[in-house]
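agent> fetching stored inputs for the fe (ii) ion docking request
agent> found them:
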Amino acid sequence: MSAARGEAVCAAPGAAAVTDPTHLDGTILLAPTPPRWVEAALRELPQLLIDHANCEKKAASSALALMFTYADDRPLALALSRLAREELRHFEQVARAMGTLGVPFARQTPGRYAAGLRRALRSADPGRKLDLLLTGALIEARSAERFALLAPRLAPPLSRLYAELGSAEARHFTLYLDLARASAPAAWRVRLATLAACEAELATAPDRSLRFHSGPV
Ligand SMILES: [Fe+2]
Ligand SMILES: [Fe+2]
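agent> prediction call returned; pasting tokens
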């Protein structure tokens, strides 16, 4: 897929990122979410919830796709089977919250963040499996960070739900990172630095519309 006009191009990682890809209190994110994204998310809560519900479905679907592609990897299959079920439970929890708040479902078109990460993936193995696991870890880490930022600013019952989901996604981040380490013990650090730089740019550059993983609008 070619880069669309105006979309962020991933930067090459700096030397610090290559030697130490874990930053920000143990996470792998190379840049924090801009405060302007948090303010926009609170202002446009219905749109945030619609995209959040979509992300939970996508998280389950991505885990299932990995299980099909790497069917010979039994530890991966068992771990991601559990993860996919958990993501679908998250979807049901968000769907219930949307119902309580009167937010209707709507189809989402692919956002800049997901499209940008997809472009950074290598197209074939060896290499693609590691990239898919590392981007899984990065997306989960970004989700955990944003749930933690939003939870204290929301009213119950959404505040409690977002705090719980933040803990779950932090656990998923660790799971994907462990699978990536096991998949490529020698290569994961350098590749993570490259993909983390790409993710940080996509999550912080200005965006046209609010998404759970967009930059500030
Ligand atoms: Fe989730
Ligand atoms: Fe997750």
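agent> quick read of the result: Residues 74-101 form the longest helix (28 residues).
agent> awaiting further instructions
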